[in-house]
Structures are given as C-alpha cells and as structure tokens.
Amino acid sequence: MWDDVKQMNALAITLTVITVLGLAWVAVTWIVRQPSFAFREVVVIAPLLRANGAHLEAVIREELTGTFFTMDLERARNALNEVPWVRSVALRRQWPHRLEVTVDEHEPLARWNDASLVNTRGEVFTAQSRAELPQFNGPEGRAAEVAARYRTWFDTLQPVALTVTQVRLSPRGAWQLKTIGPAGPLTLELGRDEPDARLARFVAVHGRTLGALARAGTRIEAVDLRYRNGFAARIPGFREKSAKPAAGTT
Q1: In which domain, by residue range, is 200 found?
Q2: Both 132 and 89 in a single domain?
Q3: What CATH number is associated with residue 47?
C-alpha cells in the first residue's frame, strides 16, 4: 500500500476531507452559540385571559435558554405547559432575534372532584378559579364522559326551567343530577340504565306531575327516576306513617 501512489493520494484526500469537515463542525457549533444569535424579543401573540402573565414571563426568562439555533423548543414547551391555565403552547422562531409564543388557555366548564377543574374539551387540569361553576364528581378517567352528559342533560332540562348544578357518577356507574329551578333545588336519581331515556320521560310528564304540585304549593326535593313506568318524588319533611299493630299482637 505504501508503495501505491494512487492509494496514498486517496488516503490523503480522505483524511483532508475528514479534517475539514471536523473543523467546519466545530466552527458552526461555536458560531451558533454566540450571543449575537440570542433571542432579543419574546412576544406572546394572543392576549391572556386567565393565565398569569407575570408567571408566564418568569418561566420564559428561566427556561427559554439558548440561541436562535440551539434552543430546546420541546423543553421550553413542557415548562410553559406547567403554568396554570395553559393548555398548550406553540413556539415559533422568527429570524433573527424574535421568538413568538402562542398560548392556548383552558376554558373552564366545571369543577372536578375535590381540587381540579375540567375544561370544555373534557380535560382535567389544576388551577384556581372563583367563578361559579357546576360540580362534577366521578371516577378518574371519566371526566370527558361526565362533561358530555352534562351538555346533553343541560339542554334536555331547559324546557322545564331546571339548571344542572352538579353531575355525579358513582364508581358503579349510577348517575345523579342536582338542579336548581323556580321551585328551588331538586335532585334527580337517574341510575345506571338508560339515563337519557329516563330524563326525557321525566321532562315529558313534568308539566302534569311536578309542575302541577309546584303550582299547588307543594315543593319536591328529590325525584327517583329508576322505575320502569314512573318515578317517585320526595317531599321535604314528609315521613310515611308506620302501620299500627293489629289487636292482640305484640
């Protein structure tokens, strides 16, 4: 090999190319890390309705490290997604020194169990809110289903002027609604089977049942719809009298 001029020339060229590429890589790596390529302007595109701007800015200053070329956008997105009320974040580089931040915020629909919220997409998140929101309770992983039921049943009850304030799904799959209307609060027990059909049947006969009782001055506090051909109503303070023992019995 050492006596073969062609092979020696080919080897020399190969080593030269490798050396040049290595030096070029070092040079590029050094250049892209220079302060001249650092971001000088970070702009939040849409106005924030719920997320704390100061908190968001603090995270941006702490986490958005690197230059136009070297910033880890995935790490930056993950950090910004931890800010309360932030659902997702889109980051866009704009040459030469500008970074645009687009924030998609959670839109609250209800409270979820003890300390969380659920948004209009049925997603659970954690944030503080003083808004008057309905209460959802259910097993973990069922928030989207509860939210969908809420929307359906909210519309179903509009003709009888009942507004849903709470939806509860038990671990065994039984549904309960708490509502408020002109006659006050009303609890509806829907059970597990065909809750939509049961609620629709209740609305269909409301005018000549609970509506008639309300017009007569009788208030109902709860209705059990878990009957095949009707429902049971509970009147506040009403107690069924126990039968008297027959004569001669003990």
Answers
A1: 109-234
A2: no
A3: 3.10.20.310
The percentage of the chain sitting over the pLDDT mark of 90, rounded to a whole number, equals: 47
Q: Read out DSSP for 182-225? A: TTEEEEEEEESS-HHHHHHHHHHHGGGTHHHHHHTT----EEE-
Round to the nearest angstrom and report the end-to-end CA distance of the chain: 120
Q: Note the pTM of the prediction, 2 decimals.
A: 0.75
Considering the domain architecture, whether residues 83 and 200 belong to the same structural domain is answered as: no
Instruction: State the Cα–Cα distance between residues 22 and 110, nearest whole angstrom.
Output: 58
For residue 78, what pLDDT is reported? 85
Contact between 181 and 192 (Cβ < 8 Å) = no
Q: Where are the alpha helices (DSSP H) in the chain?
A: 5-32, 53-63, 73-80, 143-156, 195-205, 210-215
Q: How far apart are CA 165 and CA 159, in angstroms?
A: 16
188 against 43, higher pLDDT = 188
Both 197 and 84 in a single domain? Answer: no
Same domain, 99 and 199: no
Please give the order of strands across the beta sheet that includes 163-169.
Answer: 124-125, 116-119, 108-112, 135-137, 163-169, 175-181, 184-191, 222-224, 232-234
